Backbone:
């Protein structure tokens, strides 16, 4: 079985579908489901005033699906990021189908997707909001705070048992090393955050608690690969995805035998990047770094 995952979509739904079409042709196999790590932007009109000003130059192609002009060809599941149509998602804290084949997973929990047990946590960490109640997303300010997860969301996700994969929007802290892609980008002066501060500690706690085989995340717009090793020899492989601008960093696919990944690859070529038993580390993301503009977040 083939499952694909895509980075921050930012409204580029047509492009994602084209990528999946190409991947299926390359692999000669149907993609059973597409997972997204957030910032998909399911706005029902292209000129929605609630989109951030920095995002309004990007496509808003979900409108075609909302109007019924197009239908997603494969099941598409996503967690919320910090750039979303929050008023609509706020009405679905436990997730739900927005249009045929496009499903918001919810704030936190677990769901069976194509035979995989997928745990998830939507949003990013904001210290000033983590212990404060969530307000209805009905204004510019409350829409912004809707993109932050709360203590209770993390608690719900931590209670999940037996997850095969974990979907996050923001990176868990502790996965970027001095030789990682994000450190190299920072050293070039493109981003000024130090590699030790990338990601948030609560996502790291969640990963440590669940110890899934794979973690998928986005938000930083830098492709990155890392492995976390646990007592007893268990491992968690982390895949950080670029946004949906370049398929070689913004798309990965998994060839599954049941819930176990046999092979995986980046992009649409169908070329295998990793086979079970091989190391999964920074070398997997080498050559996929691109210039990042901080305004993209």
Residues:
């Amino acid at each position: 079985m083939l499952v694909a995952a895509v980075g921050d979509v930012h409204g580029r739904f047509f492009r994602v579908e084209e990528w999946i079409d190409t991947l299926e042709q390359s692999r000669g196999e149907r993609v059973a489901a597409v997972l997204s790590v957030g910032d998909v932007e399911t706005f029902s009109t292209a000129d929605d005033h609630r989109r951030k000003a920095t995002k309004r130059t990007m496509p808003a192609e979900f409108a075609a699906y909302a109007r019924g002009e197009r239908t997603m060809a494969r099941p598409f599941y996503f967690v919320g990021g910090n750039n979303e149509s929050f008023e609509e998602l706020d009405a679905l804290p436990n997730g739900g189908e927005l249009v045929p084949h496009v499903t918001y997973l919810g704030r936190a929990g677990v769901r069976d997707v194509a035979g995989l047990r997928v745990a998830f946590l939507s949003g990013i960490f904001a210290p000033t909001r983590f212990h404060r109640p969530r307000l209805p997303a009905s204004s510019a300010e409350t829409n912004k705070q809707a993109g932050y997860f709360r203590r209770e969301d993390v608690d719900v996700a931590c209670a999940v048992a037996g997850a095969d994969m974990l979907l996050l929007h923001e990176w868990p802290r502790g996965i970027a090393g001095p030789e990682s892609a994000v450190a190299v980008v920072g050293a070039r002066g493109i981003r000024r955050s130090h590699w030790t501060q990338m990601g948030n500690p609560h996502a790291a706690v969640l990963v440590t608690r669940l110890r899934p085989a794979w973690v998928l995340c986005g938000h930083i717009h830098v492709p990155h690969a890392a492995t976390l090793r646990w007592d007893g020899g268990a491992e968690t492989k982390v895949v950080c995805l670029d946004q949906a601008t370049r398929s070689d960093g913004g798309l990965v696919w998994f060839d599954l035998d049941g819930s176990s990944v046999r092979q995986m690859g980046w992009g649409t070529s169908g070329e295998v990047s990793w086979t079970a038993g091989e190391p999964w580390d920074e070398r997997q993301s080498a050559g996929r770094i691109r210039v990042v503009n901080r305004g993209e977040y």
In short: Confidence is low (pLDDT under 50) at residues 183-192, 291-297. The chain has one domain: 2-296.
